[in-house]
Amino acid sequence: MNGTDFAEWSRKAADWGVAYRASLRDRPVRAQTAPGEIAARLPMQPPQTGEDMDAIFADFEHIILPGMTHWQHPRFFAYFPANAAPVSVVAEYLVTAMAAQCMLWQTSPAATELETRVLDWLRQAIGLPEGFAGVIQDSASSATLSAVLVMRERALDWNGNKAGLSGNPQLRIYSSDQVHTSIDRAIWVSGIGENNLVRIPARGALRGMDCDALEAAIVKDTEAGYVPAGIIACTGGTSTGACDNIADVVRIAHRHGLYVHVDAAWAGSAMICEEFRHLWAGVEEADSVVFNPHKWLGAQFDCSAHFIRNPADLVRTLAIQPEYLKTHGRDGIINYSEWTVPLGRRFRALKLWFLLRFHGLDGLRTMIRNHVDWSAKLCKRLRAGDNFEIVTEPAFSLFSFRHLGAKDLDAHNRALVNAINDDGRIYLTQTRVDGRVAIRFQAGQFEMTESDVDTAFDVISEVAARMPNAG
């Protein structure tokens, strides 16, 4: 592709993106294709000769696009959002065009220095005190894995990476039963083992970790010869928005010398609004905190902000410095590849810089407050509606509900959520609360309006009324 063609197709791609975003309300939110339908239209063998861009682009529109679920749709109410504010998309065009590998300071000084500055902006925005340093991870899963590896190394006197886990005492990590499954994977990958992840039951309206049970488990494990290593707390759990009492968790951790990591992947964005910070009171005493600006804040995926009280522990755990990765003659620089599991790093800070400058914190606060308010109004309407039960009250902009009027409520509500999604106007997903099926609703798409939530009420009510055994 020569320069003229590159210019032409870059313009076409940008124009297509604008038209696509403008058309989303007219599209079904979830892909309507059957399993295998897309694959059946793709050749079994790779092309031996190059093809014309017109043909490739046409196949993109006719084959690929029908099989896409539209995550930027304003009525995407299912999983937590993967927002891509338009200004963030523009920044990603530039990142893609430059295609820099930003693993070291010397491989792109601006990428490193901008990351340092915008992460400190975010630290201030969410109310973390000075002393926390930030790094952009690809996802909260990677940040949690990094935290678990630090827990492991601290508990083994920094000998795990060198000697391995064989022959060392068994470590224990503690979390509630409301945390994301990425915690399970971190335990697997770290070598600590699933049997050593101790699940603490949740209690109360916020479904937070039972701190009495937490301390009892730590004491019991210590007496049994295990080595407690750390606690993973959550603010805004994936299923129902559960929030641990971070202050109590930290106090227990300090008594027993344990590392505390706070997973606020979704809800951390809401902490730019001071009125929500009581839901993670005590976070300033944690050892590490993660939240995803690519969820609720509007930064295009992937972009996860990981804040660490003592970065030296993270670097000691993860840094490898062969000669070819050393930067000679530059003291005091940061090489962020030493703060993450992957060596390679994209220029993720640029989209945050564009986003924060264009919208400002005030604009982003207004968006989040609207989502919380609109979700609460929908909850109130469903509560007053026919045959609806609110299962979990709103946590930020997330709540869950159930439709009544059938003998087998689990099967009835699974069928209801499938029928809602087949309708196409909105997209929801289900969870389990105390063992029973419930339907989740969360408001968070960057460009949604209150009318989109009104549509959600209409669709839920209409489809529920048509269900067998309804009424």
List the helices and strands and how they pair.
Elements: H1 3-22, H2 53-64, H3 86-98, H4 109-125, E1 133-137, H5 140-155, H6 160-163, E2 171-176, H7 182-189, E3 197-200, E4 202-203, E5 208-209, H8 211-223, E6 227-234, H9 246-256, E7 259-263, E8 288-291, H10 293-297, E9 304-308, H11 311-318, H12 349-384, E10 388-395, E11 398-403, H13 409-423, E12 429-433, E13 436-442, H14 450-466
Parallel strand pairs: 2-3, 2-6, 6-7, 7-8
Antiparallel strand pairs: 1-9, 4-5, 8-9, 10-11, 11-13, 12-13
Helix pairs in contact: 3-12, 4-12, 5-7, 5-11, 8-9, 12-14, 13-14
Walk me through what this model shows.
It is a single chain. The chain has 14 helices and 13 strands. The protein has a 7-stranded mixed sheet, with helices on both faces. The chain has a 4-stranded antiparallel sheet with strand order 10-11-13-12, covered by helices on one side. The chain has a two-stranded antiparallel ribbon with strand order 4-5. The model has no long low-confidence stretch (mean pLDDT about 90). It is globular and about 60 Å long. It has about 475 residues and is of the alpha/beta class.
Name the shape in a single word: globular
String of helices and strands: HHHHEHHEHEEEHEHEEHEHHEEHEEH
Q: How many H/I helices?
A: 14
Proportion of residues in helical segments: 40-55%
Number of strands: 13
Keywords:
14% strand, 471 residues, alpha/beta, four-stranded antiparallel sheet, globular, 41% helix
